[in-house]
Amino acid sequence: MEFQNTREFAQQLDAQDELFKYRDEFHFPSINGKNVIYFTGNSLGLQPKRTKTYVDEVMNDWARLAVEGHFYADKPWWDYHERFAIPLSEIVGAKPSEITVMNTLTVNLHLMMVSFYQPTEKKYKIICEEKAFPSDQYMFQSQVKFHGFNPSDAIIEIKRREGEHNIRHEDILAKIEEVGDELALVLIGGVNYYTGQVFDIKTITQAAQKTGAFVGWDLAHAAGNIELQLHDWCVDFACWCSYKYMNSGPGNVSGCFIHEKHHGDFELQRFAGWWGHNKERRFKMEPHFEPEYGANGWQISNLPILSLAPYLASAEMFAEVGMTKLVKKRNLLTAYLEFILHEIDEEIDGTEFEIITPQNQEERACQLSVYFHGQGKTLFDYLMVNGVITDWREPNVIRLAPAPFYCSFEDMYEFGQILKKGISK
Ligand SMILES: *Cc1c(COP(=O)(O)O)cnc(C)c1O
C-alpha cells in the first residue's frame, strides 16, 4: 500500500478498519481536555470499559454472599481461574489444560524454574539474551546462586554484534550448539522489551531441546501482541504478565503455560499449595499433596479474585476479536507509524533519529523503538505535555507501541505533526 502523510489518508484507513469501534471500549486519559495518543500499551494497557462490571460483580457477590461466594457467586470463586483456560489457550496457541493464571510474572518464572531448572554438576548453564529485562536477570542470578553455582559461569548471554541493535538468530543457535550438553535451560523474552525484536520461538525451542535442555519463554511483551503456537512449538513452559498488551490493570496476575507432555510427570519438582491439589478433594484438608492434572496442578494459593476479574474481562475481549485480526491491524498500523517517522525525519533533515527495531515484519510486532541522536529526553517531555504518552529508556530511546485494540491511524498522523513541531523547536 502507498501510504500518505495526510489526515485524510489516515482517516480513510480508520474508516476501513474493522477494529476501529473498539477504541470506544477503552478509557483514555486526557491532557488539555483531549484524549491522549497512547503509545505505552506495552507497559500498561488502557482500561477496557467493561472491566468495571466484572469487578463490581465480585464486590456485589462478596457483599451479598460473603464466604458462600466461593460456591454460589455467579462466577464461583473456588474455580474462577478455570474461566481463563479457553480464551487464553486461543490467544497463546495452547490446549486449555496447559493454561493457568496465578501470582505475578517474575514469581511464576521462579516457580517454573523450580520445575525446569534442576542443574547438575555437568548440566547447569542457562542461555538468555543480553540485557534481558532486569527482573529476569535478578531471577537468573538468584536461582543460579541458590543451586550453588557461579552466575558468571552459569549464565550465558547472547550478545548483539558490535554496532548492531538486534540479536542475530544464527548467533543464538550457534551458542546453543556450543554450550551443548552443559545447557540446562534456555529462557528468553519472546519479544525484546527494549528493541521490540521478535524471536523465532519455534526454531530456538527445537534447537535447545535437542541438547536435552528445557526451554521457557518470558512472554511479557508477546502475549496479546504476536501470534503464538506454544503447544505445537513444544515449548516446555511460558509465563506472561497481563497488564501490558493484555490490559488487565496495574501489576496484575500472570498467565502461565505448561506443556501437556509434563502433566503426567509427578516426579517433576514443584512447590505445592492447596490450590494445586486435586480439585474434587481440595477442601478435604488431606495431609498428602496430590496435584491436579494439568497446569492447574502448579497453583499454590487461594486466588485473588479481585485481580482475576479485570483480566477475565480483557481475556474475553481478546478471544472475541482473535489474534488474527489484531495482528493484521498491528502490522498495518506499525508500518504506517514507521512511514510517518521517516516522512517527518526527511521533512526536517534526515538525521534526527533512527529506528532500532528490525525493519523486517517477521522480526517485529507492535513496537518501534526510536533512538534519538539529539535531545531525546526534552522531546519526550514535550510529547507528554502535548498529549502523547510515550516511554523513555536510557540512554536515548523512545519506545512507541501503537496497540491495535485502541490506537488509530489518525493518531499516527497527529503524532507525526506534534513530533515535527517538537523537533523543529
Ligand atoms: C514487564 C516485564 C516483567 C515484569 O515482571 P513482574 O513480575 O510482573 O513485575 C518481567 N519480564 C519482562 C521481560 C517484562 O517485560
From TrEMBL:
Pyridoxal 5'-phosphate binds at residues 105-106, 133-136, 218, 221, 243, 274, 302. Keywords: Hydrolase, Pyridine nucleotide biosynthesis, Pyridoxal phosphate. The keyword Hydrolase applies. It is an enzyme of class 3 (hydrolase). Gene3D superfamilies: Aspartate Aminotransferase, domain 1, Type I PLP-dependent aspartate aminotransferase-like (Major domain). It holds the Pfam family KYNU_C. It comes from the Bacteria. Its EC number is 3.7.1.3. Pathway: Amino-acid degradation; L-kynurenine degradation; L-alanine and anthranilate from L-kynurenine: step 1/1; Cofactor biosynthesis; NAD(+) biosynthesis; quinolinate from L-kynurenine: step 2/3. Its cofactor is pyridoxal 5'-phosphate. The modification N6-(pyridoxal phosphate)lysine is found at residue 244. It catalyses: L-kynurenine + H2O = anthranilate + L-alanine + H(+); 3-hydroxy-L-kynurenine + H2O = 3-hydroxyanthranilate + L-alanine + H(+). GO terms for molecular function: kynureninase activity. Belongs to the kynureninase family. PANTHER family: KYNURENINASE. Homodimer. Catalyzes the cleavage of L-kynurenine (L-Kyn) and L-3-hydroxykynurenine (L-3OHKyn) into anthranilic acid (AA) and 3-hydroxyanthranilic acid (3-OHAA), respectively. This is Kynureninase.
